[in-house]
Write a structure and sequence with these properties.
Elements: E1 15-18, E2 24-29, E3 35-41, H1 55-62, H2 74-81, E4 85-90, E5 95-101, H3 106-118, H4 124-142, H5 145-157, H6 171-174, H7 179-189, E6 195-201, H8 205-218, E7 243-249, E8 256-264, H9 273-284, H10 290-298, E9 302-311, E10 316-324, H11 329-345, H12 350-366, H13 371-385, H14 389-400, H15 403-413, E11 419-425
């Protein structure tokens, strides 16, 4: 008998705790010899104006340059001497800081992590030094073929939404930023009500909550928010009405790149994203998926092809990318459009949907093993959606979908006659 995930015992049992200042704490004890604290901020490059594009990412670098209590470099030194690890990441919709420690060091290191994030002093001299590091990172990113391709695709996918801009920002903006602008940005956005603190690992849940609460009390976050002037509400962009074609030459490439994008629902319409996740799997995940089998294995028209349904907060993109010889570009684009047409007119087979559901369920279980995996899952959903339930039940939503749901989603969001396409040729 096959058990579906709906019948399996619940893997996860995180506990939610809200502090009076608006901070959300998620905690869970798991029997793994480590503890992870992840601080998620619902602040990424999407909240920036064009004039400060890249600020959120630059600030992520400056967070580690010390506070009134911790000299620059002190935080990393104390983390390293305990054999703990720390890292951070900035995206369009969030910024995320984390440490993973041994359970016995957690209570000692947590206040340091909270102090650097909440009370960054952003000194002028360190700001100037770090600006050079960020500018170098921007130049490296310009030199990276994959990132260049992705950036061009995003500029095609979105005209108005902030997702058309790079997270790192342009050199011209970064070179003009002032330390005081960053202090204001930090003051404004790094507020308890924008934060989710997730603690997962081998300490009792109550103890995890207590340690994190104490860390925030000690950090006595005294910044008063000038709370950001509300933007005029941002609406998703309407679907493409025709094929929007952009072409580039890139001498560093060996093969041409083809990227096709559709505008699809984002996290604000979470229930609409699941069917698109399955369609991405049916088209492009694994050797037996439709595009891989047809275009790579059988017809040998592409050397690689991948499909993803990327859900940003406000709007997502259904993203198909392929590498092929220049002369195969038209036939590959045509073939992909034809596969989309098939999804709109013929029901997918039960065995195809079952393959993707099985794969999703397994990846969910495997991606849930370490404390940092779990803390990432909880932080992402709690921070961006304000709800943990979809984090826990993702496989059940995927399991529940019928072939008719997929047909509907393909017709609603993926049009074979209207999409954005970026072609990059090597000569």
């Amino acid at each position: 008998m096959t058990t579906t995930l709906l019948q399996l015992p619940r893997l996860n049992a995180p506990k939610l705790h809200q502090l009076p200042n608006g901070l959300t704490i998620v905690a869970e004890q798991v029997p793994v010899a480590a503890v992870n604290l992840s601080l998620w901020l619902k602040v990424g490059s999407a909240v920036e104006s064009d004039a400060i594009n890249g600020m959120a990412h630059f600030l992520e670098h400056m967070i580690f340059k010390g506070t009134e209590r911790l000299a620059s470099g002190e935080f990393e030194r104390r983390i390293e001497e305990r054999g703990a690890v720390t890292n951070a990441a900035t995206s369009q919709d969030y910024t995320h800081y984390y440490i993973t420690t041994a359970p016995k060091d957690f209570a000692e290191l947590v206040p340091l992590q909270i102090d650097v994030v909440c009370n960054a002093s952003i000194p002028d001299d360190a700001f100037e030094r770090e600006r050079l590091v960020v500018l170098e990172e921007i130049r490296r990113s310009e030199d990276n073929k994959r990132r260049r391709t992705f950036r061009r695709a995003m500029e095609t996918a979105f005209e108005v939404l902030p997702y058309h801009r790079p997270v790192l920002g342009p050199e011209s903006v970064i070179s003009q930023l002032k330390p005081q602008q960053m202090r204001d940005f930090h003051n404004n956005w790094y507020q308890p009500q924008s934060m989710t603190a997730v603690a997962v690992g081998n300490l009792p849940t109550e103890e995890l909550i207590e340690i994190v609460t104490k860390g925030f009390t000690q950090a006595n976050h005294t910044h008063h928010s000038l709370l950001p002037t509300p933007h005029s509400p941002i609406h998703p962009e309407s679907a493409f009405t025709e094929v929007v074609h952009r072409e580039f030459i890139d001498a560093s490439l060996q093969q041409a790149r083809l990227v096709m994008v559709w505008r699809v629902p984002g996290l604000t319409q979470l229930d609409q994203t699941y069917a698109l996740d399955i369609l991405a799997g049916i088209l492009g995940h694994g050797r037996t998926s439709r595009l891989v089998r047809d275009l790579r294995e059988e017809r040998e028209l592409v050397s690689s092809i991948s499909v993803s349904n990327m859900s940003n907060q406000l709007q997502g993109t259904f993203y198909i990318s392929a590498k092929c010889a220049v002369e195969n570009l038209p036939v590959v684009e045509d073939a992909i459009a034809q596969h989309i047409r098939t999804l709109q007119t013929e029901l997918v087979t039960e065995s195809e949907i079952a393959r993707v559901q099985r794969r999703v369920a397994n990846r969910f279980i495997f991606g849930n093993e370490t404390p940092s995996d779990r803390a990432g899952l909880y932080g992402y959903y709690q921070s961006l959606i304000g709800d943990l339930e979809p984090a826990l039940n993702y496989p059940s939503y995927i399991q529940a979908l019928q072939v008719s749901d997929l047909l509907l989603a393909a017709n609603q969001y993926l049009c074979p006659e209207a999409y954005g396409v970026v072609v990059i040729k090597p000569f």
